[in-house]
Amino acid sequence: MPDTATFYHYGISPWEIEVIYDTLNRSFEVEEKQLPPDDPQYVSMVEIRFPVPYNETFFQQEFSMDSWFKIKGVIKDVKKRRGRKGIKAFIRFAGFGNNNNNNNNDDKKIDIVFPLQSKGDRQFEMGMEKIEYLVDIVPVQLRLIPPGTEEIWYLYDEASAKWSPSIAKTGSINYLFKNNEWKTK
């Protein structure tokens, strides 16, 4: 039985929903849900959680580059159609690297999240395009993470056009990544 991907959304067309759902459903069971809008700055939202780690195997075997390009293309098209009204997208993975996130985390899968919330078309597209190119650097960037980390959020810096670790969430503390180290303030 395949793992279950989640696909939450609001403000996208039935065609966009169908393409994303069908593409996800080629590789995974899919839990799909339309949510009520939660942010007046954005008319649309897409959140996809892949039930597998973020690594090369995801792009080459588990999901395939063709499926990734299709999902990526639909999300970028949604952005173009919404223009400045905005779409926010969250691409989540169940773990990263070779599935064993070491560093005192008892091989627990630590979710990794790539949020895209840029109002500019070009910045949004560039952030989306670069996600698959980070597979080699993410395990290096996240070698030393705070104990008990459950989720790592990345941030796309529009000025440098790069993704970098931003927040490590534990049960009770959020750590910020500044000057190449995790800090609580």
So how many helices?
A: 5
Unreliable stretches (pLDDT < 50, length at least 5) are 99-107
Computed over alpha carbons, the radius of gyration is 16 Å
Count of DSSP strands: 9
**Helicity level:** 25-40%
SSE run: EHEEHHEEHHEEEE
Output the strand order for the largest sheet.
2-1-3-4-5-6-7-8-9
Percent of residues in beta strands: 25-35%
Mean pLDDT: 89
Structural class: alpha/beta
What would you call the shape?
globular
- How many distinct folded domains? 1
How would you characterize the overall build of this protein?
Residues 99-107 have low confidence and may be disordered. The protein has 5 helices and 9 strands. The chain has one domain. It has helices at residues 14-25, 56-62, 65-82, 121-130, 138-141; strands at 4-10, 29-34, 44-50, 87-93, 111-116, 151-157, 162-169, 174-178, 181-183. The longest helix is centred in the middle third of the chain and has 18 residues, at 65-82.
